[in-house]
Records
---
Amino acid sequence: MSRIGRLPIPLPDKVTLSEKKKLLTVKGPRGEMTLQIPSGIKVKTEDGLAIVSTKDESKEIKMLHGTTRAHLANKIQGVSTGHTKILIVQGKGFQAEIKGRILEMQLGFSHKVLFEIPVGLVLEIKPGQNSFTLTISGNDKQLVGAFSSELYKVKKVEPYNLIGFRYSDQHVKRKAAKTIT
C-alpha cells in the first residue's frame, strides 16, 4: 500500500465529488474539474474526507495508488483555492504588458517576447524598480506549472547579477565577480 495513497484528503466546504463510469467530477466554488480513475482504484467520501483505496495489491495498482491520490488532491485544491506560481523578473529595462490573451515582454533581446496565455490561467503583473513580478494562477496545477516553466526557460536567472526569471521560493547562490589576479 502506498504511503501517499493511504492518506485521506480533507474536503473543504462547498466541494463535492461525484463518480460516473470511472470519471470523477470535483465541483467547488472556483469551477469544476474531472479526473479519470484507473481500474482497480476506488474513491469514497465519508465524514468530510476523500479516501482512495485499491481493490488488489498488484504492482501496477500500487504504482497508480499514490499518483491518483495526488492528482485528486490537486483537483480538490484547484476548485477550492486554486494554484499560484510567482515569478520575479529582474533586469534593467525589463517590462511586461498583457494585451488581451497575449503576454508581451521586453527582456533585453532585439525583439519583444510574446506568449499566448492559456485558457484557464490568470496573470497579474506588479511592476517594481528594475524588475516586475508575474503572478500566474489557475485551477489546474499542471497548467500553471507548465506555463511558468515555459516563461522561466526564456531567460533563466544568472548567478552574477541575478538578472532573469526566478521563482519566488527559489534560492540562487550568488557568485562573486571574476577578478584579475
---
Amino acid sequence: MKNIVLTGFMGTGKTAVGIELERLLKLKLIDVDTEIEKSEKITINEIFKQFGEPRFREIETEMIRKLSSQKNVIISTGGGAVLKQENMEILRQNGVIVCLMATPETILNRTSKSDERPLLKVENPFAKINELLNFRRPFYEKADIMIDTENKTPLRIAEEIIKKVKAYSKQ
C-alpha cells in the first residue's frame, strides 16, 4: 500500500484524522511539523520568528523528502506544504495525497484555541484565513482525493479516506 499523505489548511483535522487512520490501519502516523521541531530542536513558531517563512519552507521540503522515502506510513503535512510543487511531487512518488477541507468559520473555531499558529497571529484571523484559503485553494486541489470535514467525526473522515484511497489505488 502507498503512504497516505494528509494535506489541508490548518484546522481541517489532519492530526485528529491521522490518529484515527493510524488506529484503524495499524500504520505509523508521522507529523512533518513535529519531526521538524525534533530535528531542529526549536518550535515552528520560533523558526518563523527567527528565520522567517522561506527558511521554514526549505526545512519542510528537506523533511518531506526524508519522510516520503518510508513505506506504509501516514504522513501529516503542515498546511502550507502544498505551496511547493517539489513537495507534492516528492509526496506523490510513494503516496496518495488526501486534502482535508473545511469552511473558514470552522477553521477559525478549531484554531482559535491554539497559540501555535504563526500565520494567524494577526489582528483579524478570520480575514487571514479567507485570504490564505483563497490563495492556497488551487494548490490544495492538486491532491489525489478531496475530503470535506464539515460536521463529521475524525473516525467518519478516516473511514471515508480508507474507502477512497482503496478505490483510487485500483485505478
